[in-house]
Specification:
- It is a single chain.
- By secondary structure, the protein is an alpha+beta fold.
- The chain has one domain: Rubrerythrin, domain 2.
- Strand 4 and strand 5 form a beta hairpin.
- The termini are far apart.
């Protein structure tokens, strides 16, 4: 099974291990993290995961 990265358009090959999958996949071309849902070998949903700026600040403040 293949899908196109919603960030760069590169084809990402998910193989048969992802026929029924709900989780994240990384595009090895641009590094974008994609949230993916597949069912019975069909891509049902894909969206780019964008980190929240607030979450990054929280983790930085905790290390000071």
């Amino acid at each position: 099974m293949k899908l196109n990265c919603v960030s760069c358009g590169h084809t990402v090959d998910l193989h048969n291990d992802y026929d029924d999958y709900d989780g994240q996949v990384k595009c090895f071309t641009c590094g974008a993290l994609l949230a993916v849902r597949t069912q019975e070998g069909q891509v049902k949903w894909v969206e780019r995961v964008v980190p929240h700026h607030h979450d990054e600040e929280s983790s930085l403040h905790g290390t000071r």
